[in-house]
Amino acid sequence: MTKMSWSGAWLPVLHRLPDASSDREVALTIDDGPTNSTPGVLRILGRVGAKATFFLSGERMNRHPGIVRDIVEAGHAVYAHGMQHIPLEGEPAERIARDMTEAEAILAGLRPTPSPYLVRLPYAAGRRLPAVHKAIRAWSPTAQIAHWNASTDDHTIAGRCTDEADIRALSAAAVCRLASRRDLSGSILLMHDEPVGIPSPFVPAVTLTLAEMLVTTLSGRGYAFVPLRPIRRPPLLSRFILEK
Ligand SMILES: [Zn+2]
Asked: Which domains does the chain have, with CATH numbers?
């Protein structure tokens, strides 16, 4: 649903890959890492030359600095997903800026800070709130909100599993659902590297099983996994009209 901002508060919001250079291109975005599952995910991506975009949690980066380095060295795009994975709606602007600054400071030692900066909001909270867009613009004037159009819904899988067979069956169903989408070319796919806050012992296995099935299936069908890229010239009107 369209939402207006007469003061021009909206940042550009990505739902699909802008300027698709070919069909059969997708951007896989992986939120909430790094975790002990990340090395396995990197191996899966590396086998087919897939490049992903990681939105990394500051607290988890502090726990796994070596893994963050491995992600960057493997050529994947990395952005901060805040320090504490808190929903930003309702937070004061200074708190939002501090959350991003602290998390990006960890990454800035490993690669130049990207501009435009792509921001993946924890829980997508505040995606349609002018105050959150304004706070992020104040932090980084050219920032863009990195949303998605095709979620694996992997954060719901572990909670529905009672054994290993469930992990495979539910992951396969999620991949099948995505792979059969007619608008898959140019999609921004969402999955998690062990989603934050899911109390299930199956979480790591879901991450690895799903990554394996997703990457194998789509690359087998000729899809290339490319890093998410910003909109090159956001139309002026996009500051006033939020489409979705
Ligand atoms: Zn997240």
From this structure: 3-242 (3.20.20.370)
